[in-house]
Amino acid sequence: MEKVLVVDYGAQYAQLIARRVRECHVYSEIVPHDKPVSELAAERPSGIILSGGPKSVYSPDAPAVDPELFDLDVPVLGICYGQQAMAQALGGDVARTGVAEFGKTDLDVGEPASTLFQELPVEQRVWMSHNDAVVRAPEGFRATASTPASPVAAFENKERGLYGVQFHPEVSHTPRGTDLLKNFLYDACDLLPAWTMTSIIDSAVDSIRALAGSERIVCALSGGVDSSVAAALVHRAVGRQLTCVFVDHGLLREGEADQVEETFRRHLEVDLIHVKAADRFLERLAGVTDPERKRRIIGETFIRVFEEVARDDLEDARFLVQGTLYPDVIESGTRDAARIKSHHNVGGLPADMKLTLIEPLRNLFKDEVRRVGEELGLPEEIVWRQPFPGPGLAVRIVGDVTGERLAILRSADAIVLEEVKRAGIAGDIWQSFAVLPAVRSVGVMGDERTYGYPIVLRAVTSEDAMTADWARLPYDLLEAISSRIVNEVPGVNRVAYDITSKPPGTIEWE
Ligand code: XMP
Question: Which residue from 343, 385, 458, 464 has its CB within 8 A of the most atoms of ligand 1, so it is best to mutate?
């Protein structure tokens, strides 16, 4: 498969560049900047993009670029730091011009017929973030655009296939940035927009078949997006060789277990083992109020249940499907490692099951996974599902998890989701859900005094769950949610809205 490598110089932009390239239907992967040129060459890329980075090229610990990179006969585009590193490696001059440019900047295209700027306006807005700038292009290069503080805001050497821009074409504040990337990909690299959902699915299907042969494959299905799409993809490849195990811990939201049955057993005709283990989980959780203990018990019980199924029904399985995504792959050891550890996610499987992993989504970003899911015919409710913790509603019940309290939370939560959807703002919200605290208070209903639970409504906007803000839900929506919950859910007499951002709050209550 033809691909473009994005060399990561340590700014937050490498992922964004890779995503933009993929939006242009060209496959791209991120590689660390210290990967030797010989290894880059061995991957036979059709193009290389050098990302921006936080360092000055003059700082002693700045990551250098090996000049041999430019002799591979592979087109290279340097962005920001990448452009400066390219200029420096090839004999141009980079200097601190004294005028830093941050934010929207007017670009003056001096050479509209140049490769990168063909068919783009000669004056355009671009987004800058730099102190240093290329002040003299290397020999053989032409400066093709400038800004007030960057005389060489873009350069190119068409014969050698080398290009650079000081600004960030990958960010949305550079409105024509994607067109510039397309010029690099389709013209300079001579690529075709061939990486499509169909081609992704076809090549995943081929490699799963080649790997698994006629062996049995198992997948632990949670009902979440990643495991659902991974299962559907593997099923497309090997049909009934795949067995999905759905451990229903009884902590799912209303209708979710039915949805899994409906989608996988009835619609996709997947061989599904649905283990209804709610009673067992509830028994183990009885009287437990400490949140970390709850998580541990759920994780352990999950493994026990899975072990039993494995022993009784899956002896011959050789492969295990896992819904690992690309961000987990590139960030493992850093941010995500910390996140996963603190959550003791359900889905950890018995270590003594000697299974080889199949990770059909490990090259994909979340939005790509969702599109694959749609293409495979999974329903919207699964593909566009909000993030949901592995330990389920147990982390949204403060205090005792009992059948009765679960029923209260589940009904209230269903109302929240229904009303948010009805208001047409589900797409703007990262998560919206109900929480059941462990206090009760006095209310009055009709002529009667009540003594019931409050429901806490939590709705947040977020990019990645690392930080979040409480959603400014319209009053009408708050009103509808509150009155429906109090009227329809027995045992609840108040609704409160959590207006805490993260930090200092977390998204979940536990
Ligand atoms: P917090 O509460 O830490 O949550 O702000 C951040 C994000 O992680 C989700 N979350 C989990 N996801 N397993 C998961 O897969 C878990 O155990 C878990 N706990 C929290 C949470 O819903 C939010 O999106």
Answer: 343
